Amino acid sequence: MRTLKKIVAACGLGSAILLAGCSSVEPNGPVPVEYLSGTTLDRHQIRVAERTAYLEVKLNVLDSHLRLEEKAKIQAFVRDYISRGHGPLIMSLPKNHGNEELAVKAVAEAREIAWSAGVDYEEIRGSAYDAGGSNTAPIVLAFKAYDAIAPDCPQRSTIDFSDATSNNDLPTLGCSVRANMAAMIADPVDLLGQRPLDESDLARRTAQLELYRNGESTTAARGESESGAVSTAVN
Predict the structure, then answer these.
(1) Concatenated DSSP letters for 74-91?
(2) CA 65, CA 7: separation in Å to the nearest integer?
(3) For the segment 32-49, what is each residue's pLDDT rounded down to a tens digit?
(4) Could you tell me the fold of the domain covering 47-147?
(5) Alpha carbon distance 144, 175 (integer Å)
(6) How far, in Å, CA of 42 to CA of 213, rounded?
(7) How many Å apart are CA 27 and CA 19, to the nearest integer?
(8) 62-115 per-position pLDDT tens digit
(9) Alpha carbon 17 to chain centroid, angstroms
C-alpha cells in the first residue's frame, strides 16, 4: 500500500512539473497577441480629423465691387462646401473697415454667389470681426470639414519576407488597401457613421419584387443601340 501511495505521489509531482513547464511557454507561440482579435484591416484604421476650411476674400478700397478673381475664388469655395461641408457656411464681415460700404457690398455679393450655387440662405451664417480701420482686411468665409488620414504603412524594405517562422500575415498586408480608401472617400465624415442614409425608392423596390415573383427579368431593358457584343470592325 505504501509503495502504491509513493507511485501516486510521484505521478502527481511529475504532472505538476509538466504543467509548470507548459505554462512557461508562450501560449500563442509566434502569433502576436493583436492577431487574435479583429481582422487584418482592423490593424490599419483610417482616422478622421475635423478641420475648418476658410477663404480670405481680398477687398480693394479703390473698387466698388468684388473683383472677378475674388468672385471665382468664392465660387470654388462654395462648390467645396456643397461637396463636403458640414454645418453653416460662415461669412465674416470686417467691421471698422477702411471702406465699410465696399465690405457690406462684398458680403452681399458672396451671399448671392452661394445662393446661386444652391446654398440656402438659412445655411449661411453671418459674423463680424474688428478690422481696426484697415483697408486690406478681407472677408473671411469658413465651414467645417473632415479629412481622412491614411494609416502609416511600414516600408516594404523593413519586412523580412523570408521569415517563415509562422504563417501570420505580414504587417504590410491590407495597409495599402486602407491608404487607397482614405484617398478615394468623398466625404470622410461617413466613416464616423453620423450621416443618415437617404430614403429608399419604395416604388422601384416594389416593381422589382413583382418582376421577380412573376419570373421575369429584373434587369433594365437594353435599347437597339446597346449591346455587349465585341466589335468586329478591325477583323
Answers:
(1) HHHHHHHHHHH-EEEEEE
(2) 104
(3) 676 677 777 778 889 999
(4) 60s Ribosomal Protein L30; Chain: A; (3.30.1330)
(5) 28
(6) 40
(7) 13
(8) 788 889 999 999 999 999 999 999 999 999 999 888 788 888 899 999 999 999
(9) 54
